[in-house]
Amino acid sequence: MRPAHIALAALVAAVWGVNFVVVEIGLGHFPPLLFSALRFLVAALPAVFLVGRPKAAWKWIVGVGLVLGVAKFGLLFTGMDLGAPAGLSSLVLQIQAVFTALFAFVALGERPGRTKLVGMAVALAGIGVAAVDEDASGPLAGFAFCVAAAACWGVSNVLTRKAAPPDALNFMVWVSTVPVLPLLALSLVLEGPERDLAALRGLDWAGAGVVLYVAWVTTIFGFGAWGWLLRRHPASSVAPFSLLVPVFGMSSAALFLGEGVSPLRWCAAALLVGGVALTSLAPAEAAPAPSATAPAMPPPVVAAAAAGAGQLPSGAAAREPAGAPEGADQDPDIVLWHGTRADRP
Questions:
Q1: Bigger pLDDT: 234 or 217?
Q2: Range of 254's domain?
Q3: What share of the chain is helix, strand, coil (3-state, %, to 5)?
Q4: Which DSSP letter does residue 82 get?
């Protein structure tokens, strides 16, 4: 990769990592479900008129939209609102690579090899260490919601691989239209119309700024730049940069929010990132042969973030599909969804 392309990949990882801090700030302005709905609304409205008609079947668009947009981001933002720290959330979400491998084995027949199994065990050990660090993990409910969000991300990754969309950006833009109404309905029922109206009436420049960041910077710019890189370089060269997301997430949370990083959290980070790297880079033993017409889809680690923190998007490392030429058009499964809380992406 050229130095400029390396810098762009690192910039995207930084955008996604800082996104968790922005989400934390945003949760101070909006209830979590309303905030998530606004993120998708603002991301979808301008982009949907630019990407053309959907190029994937609606069943996949709706399925991924519900699992990724409603379940994953609803759980993530709610978990952060319940007290899960932004930096830790950026780290815990990376366990999605393990969930993706498990669900891919069940649904796609991708049998994990010995190295991948070791990586999954190491990553799960990292989650266990993070959970017992009471000073850093926050309330148990918030931590559990973040783990559940990672599991939903894993399901959405498998659905995306099944969908094999020919145009990743087109697919994710249309996916982002699906969660808006369900999230608004859930917000009205669970958070109450009074709380929602109060948040909207009190909207200021700071609140508008966090929505624009998670929607346009994290999602539109982040996913677009990541997809651009994947079209020019092997997934195995680009995907490892997503492992920088929790590094930027924890660092920015410490810098801007004053979150402490205990020795146990560093231990958890080393175990989790190392385990995710092994899980994502190790090839499956019996993955089904890709279709001659379907685009190559990188493994779980490639995808975000949005995102979560705002991307339409998740990240991890990925192997390059056998026979994929340099610059092949490869779609990141999760890169788009990284989210966070401080409003509480």
A1: 217
A2: 3-112+139-258+298-302
A3: 70, 0, 30
A4: T
Q: How many structural domains does the chain have? A: 1
**Mean pLDDT of the 2-22 span:** 92
Rg of the chain on CA atoms, in Å? 18
- Give the whole-angstrom CA distance, residue 123 versus residue 127: 6
Q: Please, which pLDDT band fits residue 338 given cuts at 50, 70 and 90?
A: very low
pTM of this structure? 0.79
Q: Amino acid identity of 270? A: A
Residue with tokens 């009074």: 194
Which amino acid would we find at residue 284?
Answer: A
Q: What angle do CA 300, 306, 309 make, to 5 degrees?
A: 125
Neighbours of 57 (CB within 10 A): 11
- Containing 25, the helix (H) or strand (E) segment is helix 3-26
Q: How far apart are CA 333 and CA 158, in angstroms?
A: 8
Stated length of the chain: 345
pLDDT, one tens digit per residue, over 248-279 is 998 899 899 988 777 887 888 888 888 888 87
Paired tokens of 286: 């019996």
What CA–CA distance (Å, rounded) separates 40 from 64? 13
Q: Which two three-digit tokens encode residue 84?
A: 């899960």
Residue 169 lies in a domain: yes
73-81 and 140-163 helices, crossing angle to 10°: 160
In a domain, 13, yes or no: yes
